[in-house]
Design goal:
A two-stranded antiparallel sheet has the order 1-2. The protein is rod-shaped and about 115 Å long. It has one domain. It contains two helices and two strands. By secondary structure, it is mainly alpha-helical.
Length: 135
């Protein structure tokens, strides 16, 4: 009776199969990273919009209640209109806000012109092409 040689084949991946899988993973990651980075920027822009809206609302309420505009953003905190001065998500600081003061001729209290508006102190450009400092 002739002897048959049985060769056992291992149940493993070959080098070429592993290289193909790695190439597919690299392609998927290289497509996903730009979308992830844009979503991070969009989230920061959304937080910036919300922070600006909250501060502008607090400035208006302070001005209406006290019959004079706040002199600093800290006045809004001490008056209870804000819990804390929000952090600018673009600059990652809460002291980089660009404050726009009232014109003394049009101020609610002409003797003490205060804060009229607040904008971001970031000089970067947003995804829509406008500067954050113009929002």
């Amino acid at each position: 009776m002739p002897m048959r040689k049985f060769t056992r084949r291992r149940a493993a991946f070959t080098l070429i199969e592993m290289m193909i899988v790695m190439a597919i993973i690299v392609i998927l990651v290289s497509v996903a990273i730009p979308y992830y980075q844009k979503s991070i920027i969009r989230a920061k822009e959304s937080v910036l919009h919300n922070n600006l809206f909250a501060m502008r609302t607090a400035i208006d309420e302070f001005t209406f209640d006290k019959q004079k505009a706040p002199q600093t953003l800290q006045d809004l905190v001490s008056g209870g209109y804000l819990h804390d001065v929000p952090r600018d998500p673009i600059t990652q600081r809460n002291d980089s806000w660009k404050i726009i003061m009232e014109d003394s001729a049009q101020a609610v209290s002409s003797s003490e012109p205060g804060i009229f508006d607040v904008r971001s102190g970031a000089s970067a450009v947003s995804l829509d092409g406008t500067r954050y400092s113009d929002w």
